[in-house]
Specification:
The protein is of the alpha/beta class. The protein is built from twelve helices and twelve strands.
Length: about 450
Amino acid sequence: MKRRDFLKSTSAGAAVASAGLTGAQLLGQQRSATGLIPNPVLVMVYLRGGHDQLNTFVPHNDKTYYGIRPTIAIPKPDVIQLDNRWGLHPAMEPLKRFYDEGRFAAVINSGSPHPTRSHFDAQDFMEFGAPGNRSIRDGWLNRFLFATKNPRGEDPEQIRAIALQERLPRSMRGSYPAVAVPSNLREIDEVLDVFEDFYRSGDPDRLRTTIDAAEKAAGVGAAAGISADPVMESGTQTIQYLRRLRQLLYGDVKPTYGSSRADSFEGGTFQEYPGGWFASRLKAAARIIKADVGLQVVGTDINGWDHHIGLGSVDGTLNRMLEFVSTSLAAFMDDLGPELDRTLILVSTEFGRVCGENGNDGSDHGHGGATWLLGGRVKGGRIYGKWTGLEPSELNQKRDLKVTTDFREIYADVLRQHMGFDLPEGFFPDYMPSERGLGIFG
């Protein structure tokens, strides 16, 4: 199915829905009818750079693992054992209890079937959901949002999709106006006023003047974080979303998201978070989810997983980054409380890393990697995916983990089983996920 035909079909399908409901309510109603939990939320965390599977989900009883990683392997006594084959890097200890509770699972040997080792191509192919197809420019999450939008227009008090960072992830870019949230949201009233005036005028000749005025009001480059999409008609909705977000996150108190001047939201149940920008983003996400404003998709990136040098064992860069991520995710899941039942955290990366270590205490671009799933109705406490072993004959090009689970199978399960979305033909171009699914959700 061509993209144009897909958009027409999904728009027509949405038009038969009740016009008095928002997109979030429509999906919530659909899930209620199936007996599943309503109002689902997906938090998409993308590990940019090629996250290493083998030192995260450790095959601790595999002698070949220790033979090909003599310096950077996780010593068996330090591995947090999950079963007789798999264990966690010790820095992931904060997430172990969620694994034990059945709220954390991973799909090993997952990723894209495309052989590229380019970060840029691999990220594009995964986030657009179309490996090798360079004609697709709408992200897979944006296609979902567009297909389930209210045909009569969205309620400005509802916020369906946000990226808690300056730029939209590729997965959220496209025809539906998702919003990227600038870190200085609390301090950009003048910028919002300028852009609101510009979008309402509808005069493209004023664009340069508007951008100049915005940069002068809030500093060079500040305007870049405001744009949800370069399409003019989405501008007013973007401004409305940002004003609503600003009210939800800060009200009349000092900001926390993206700022070092305060460290906790006022009101509600207090949940201690670790320091750092990722924890601050998750803290903001928890507040918006609990505000019940129709949020369905949250996106955020974590850069820095390209560990050619210093990946290390229990004391390298990977150790520090996994601790940074794990402590933040654990606090977020605790903060959500009962809302965790309707919130799924999906952690992806563009590819894994070469199985053997290089000469720089690191590893190079590989193929198969790992996908994490936390919360929601995940049937956790298990490692999913087909493990092919580490002998050269069992590896991709005798060096990388094979991809035995296409990432589109996982994303399709997330949309069907968690988001309650009836996946149409052609949603993933040139690929139709299996009807059976992977059995990851209860």
